[in-house]
What we know:
By secondary structure, this protein is mainly alpha-helical. It has helices at residues 12-33, 48-56, 58-65, 81-90, 107-116, 134-139, 141-144, 158-171, 175-188, 192-213; strands at residues 40-45, 69-74, 94-97.
Amino acid sequence: MFKRAVKIHGIGSYYSKFDQALKKKKVDRQKERNSNVLNKLTLYVEGSADEYFYELLSSELAERLEYEKVDAIAIGGVYSPKLVANLCNTTATDYLFLPEDDPLAGNAFRKRHDEILKNKPYLYVKPIVYYLNVESLYSDEYIARYLPPKEELDNSEPDKQLLEIERRLIRRFRSSKRQDMLRKLVQEHRVQSEIDNLISDIKKTLEKTKKDVS
């Protein structure tokens, strides 16, 4: 249903955009070195919805991970050795890749990411909908109108159903509407225990990375 292709035609156009972004990052990197905000964490996530989701959690992440600032940057769902190497070489702060652990993507997709991100700090994270309370979503009159009818839900395929809910609530909207919806979802319908587990996993990954480097 949401299966990702391992190969995408026209990927060269993405590299051009990334190259432009990386040139800007080199300038930003020098600015960061000259600024007081050196204790910063950069999270590389897949899409713009993921970027805003982690931005909404940034204050909580910064406090619990003991950083002055936590930034999220969307880099797309198609990783390449060139992209990863360039990002690693141009990031002046601590960083962590957060590829999405899509339950419908298949083993080949994950193996490819494992190979590209080998020896780099990374953590597979759940799709956004897994951090939300589905029952609470259906009890919200504003949100429920976007959801599939409860009687149509097929409990034999829970992952497929959850991703369909995410598509209807988040992926289908344009940027401004998507941000408004995400803000409401995180503020009113988050599962705090899942957010706690996410932050704990990020912290453990960062600690392991620092230990391996030292």
